From TrEMBL:
Phylogenetic placement of the source organism: Eukaryota, Choanoflagellata, Craspedida, Salpingoecidae, Salpingoeca
Protein localization: Nucleus
Protein name as catalogued: Cell cycle control protein cwf14
GO biological process: mRNA splicing, via spliceosome
Keyword Nucleus: yes
Transcription regulation keyword on record: no
Annotated signal sequence range: none
Predominant location category: nucleus
InterPro entries given in the database record: BUD31
Family listed: Belongs to the BUD31 (G10) family.
Naturally occurring in which organism (per UniProt): Salpingoeca rosetta (strain ATCC 50818 / BSB-021)
Length: 144
């Protein structure tokens, strides 16, 4: 995730409309980071952080690309300040990656067999009794 840096320049017009939602998600992120880790697998401790990071990026993506509710200047400000992941948003704009959960799931170098994550396999290709979740981010299927 990108480093959160706060610039000294004032935010662009429209910031006051999205700031409460982003502050609420930042608060949820802090709570998830401070959550106790007892009884969880090592990989499970980061799953809530990945989900909230995805939620923040998706919120800004929807405002700019889908609903066209914010300006380019405000979108660039949010990306520069670290509220949204520009690499993840770039993937969402490509066909086949519209519901991608995280960038780690499409990196083939991190997998055992040189393929993408199991969550990228469409559910129609898996047997009905197969229950899985991604080891990296906890996703249960983003390759519909």
């Amino acid at each position: 995730m990108p480093k959160m840096s706060r610039s000294k320049r004032p935010p662009p017009e429209g910031w006051e409309l999205i700031a409460p939602t982003l502050e609420q998600l930042d608060q949820k992120l802090r709570e998830a980071e401070n959550e106790p880790h007892e009884g969880k697998r090592k990989c499970e401790t980061l799953w809530p952080v990945f989900r909230i990071h995805h939620q923040k990026s998706r919120y800004i993506f929807n405002l700019y690309y889908k609903r066209k509710a914010i300006s380019k200047e405000l979108y660039d400000f949010c990306v520069k300040e670290g509220h949204a992941d520009p690499n993840l948003i770039a993937k969402w704009r490509k066909p086949g990656y519209e519901s991608l959960c995280c960038l780690a799931c499409i990196q083939t170098r991190d997998s055992n067999h040189g393929t993408t994550c199991i969550c990228r396999v469409p559910r129609s290709k898996l047997s009905e009794d197969t229950k899985f979740e991604c080891v990296r981010c906890g996703c249960r299927g983003c390759g519909h």
